[in-house]
Design a protein that fits this description.
The protein is mostly beta strands. The protein has one domain. Helices cover 11% and strands 35% of the residues. The protein has 3 helices and 18 strands. The protein has an 8-stranded antiparallel β-sheet with strand order 1-2-3-14-13-15-11-12. A 5-stranded antiparallel β-sheet has the order 4-18-5-16-17, with helices on one face. A hairpin with an 8-residue loop joins strand 16 and strand 17. The longest helix is centred in the first third of the chain and has 13 residues. The radius of gyration is 17 Å and the shape is globular.
């Protein structure tokens, strides 16, 4: 995604006013137990404005699983190659990662399997930093982040969607696209998710901050990853079963996933 388009998109967001919507789950499948191992969950939501959104979710506990970022190379890798990369890296679930330029260069800092790519950037879009180290998984505002040794997985992305349990104000209410995100209760529970249907950033933030809508626990903070045609999801159910996949419609530069500790 070109930086110039992202800058225009952010300027347009500032002129938009958020539309409020109530989100109701339409599927009756029960949530897994909080102490369950990593699990896949498919969710269908309907808003009070009439929008229906299907989402694929990978729920996991950061005490048992670590964050991983895979660099698929500047030539970019199509969704058909994701399962091979995922298996080779020992990932149990993955989504597409952060933003990138048309030439494949990442937008913002990326640390993939301990290797640093690009540089830390202060573009308004990149309001959050998702990273992992030996202590666990962390999600922070860019202004609070300090780069240090021991970080082996990191992506800059944005915008922030939920903070302190509330939807962030001022998010776009105009661009309806498929979305990729990560969210946490900021204790130890996390969810990697991707939607099969389009919704605005404001709607996604509202859904994430609605109790029981996209997580079985209250979301304390959440971050948007690259969405639109880059949106993709992959989950390995194990036991010789075929992966559960939402195919990205374009090649991507990075994957964000989890592996067992």
């Amino acid at each position: 995604m070109l930086l110039s388009l992202l800058v225009f998109w952010l300027m347009f967001d500032a002129w938009s006013s958020p539309a409020q919507a109530d989100w109701r789950p339409q599927t009756g499948e029960p949530w897994p137990a909080p102490e369950a191992p990593i699990s896949h969950h498919e969710r269908t939501l309907e808003s009070s404005t009439g929008r229906t959104v299907r989402a694929h979710l990978a729920l996991f506990d950061s005490r048992r699983y670590r964050l991983a970022v895979l660099d698929l190379g500047a030539e970019l890798a199509p969704a058909s190659a994701w399962p091979e990369h995922m298996r080779a890296a020992g990932l149990l679930a993955a989504v597409n990662g952060g933003f990138f330029h048309a030439d494949g260069q990442p937008l913002g800092l990326v640390i993939a399997e301990g290797t640093r790519l690009n540089r830390f950037e202060t573009a308004k879009l990149l309001s959050g930093v998702l990273y992992g180290d030996a202590r666990g998984i962390h999600l922070e505002r860019r202004v609070r982040f300090q780069l240090r040794t021991g970080i082996d997985a990191l992506v800059q992305s944005g915008p922030y969607l939920v903070e302190h349990g509330r939807a962030v104000r001022g998010l776009s209410t105009n661009d309806v696209s498929r979305r990729t995100f990560i969210a946490t209760d900021w204790r130890r529970h996390w969810v990697l998710g991707a939607t099969r249907d389009g919704l605005t950033l404001a709607e996604l933030a509202e859904a994430l901050s609605t109790p029981g809508a996209l997580a079985p626990w209250a979301v304390e903070r959440a971050l948007n990853l690259d969405g639109g045609t880059s949106t993709g999801f992959l989950f390995d159910p194990g036991a010789g079963q075929a992966p559960i996949q939402v195919r990205a419609r374009r090649p991507v530069r990075t994957l964000v996933g989890v592996r067992a500790r």
